[in-house]
Amino acid sequence: MTYYPPVSPYAAGLGGKCPRCGQGPLFDGYLGLLKTCDRCGLDYAKADAGDGPAVFVIFIVGFISVGAAFILKFAWYAPLWLAFGISAGLAIGLTLALLRPLKATLIALQYANKAAEGRLDD
Questions:
Q1: Measuring CA to CA, which of 11, 38, 96, 119 is 20 to 30 A from 78?
Q2: Measuring CA to CA, which residue among 41, 33, 43, 48 is closest to residue 116?
């Protein structure tokens, strides 16, 4: 059995790297996972972040973009169309920027904590 030194799940996740070796890529495309790591051979078939990344992104981006809209409209007296446009652009940009690293981080945390489906003991 090959020994792999511990990899920080946060470093692997933010870099989009394999949670076991920290070297191979995790993604095939923007959000699709590869079948296996090309460096260490880790099977990504059981890696499933579910809706977790989307929920975190919704909370983070919603807080920032709505806050920006309120500041633009009520503190700087920007026209409504401008406040909406800047806030919408900020929401789209932040969503695209955060979704991939948060998905990779949750997958790496699942691997590091040996997460598995819930089972009932017999």
A1: 96
A2: 48
Whether residue 2 is contained in a domain is answered as no
- Residue 3 located in a structural domain: no
Is pTM beyond 0.85 here?
Answer: yes
Report yes or no on 69 lying in a domain: yes
Question: Per-residue confidence at 122, pLDDT binned at 50, 70, 90?
Answer: low
CA neighbor of 48 nearest in space, from 1, 115, 113, 101: 115
State how many domains the chain has. 1
Q: What is the DSSP string of 20-49?
A: TTS-SB-BSSSSPBPSB-TTT--B-TT---
Instruction: Give, for 102, the enclosing helix (H) or strand (E).
Output: helix 80-112
Domain span at residue 67 reads 9-112
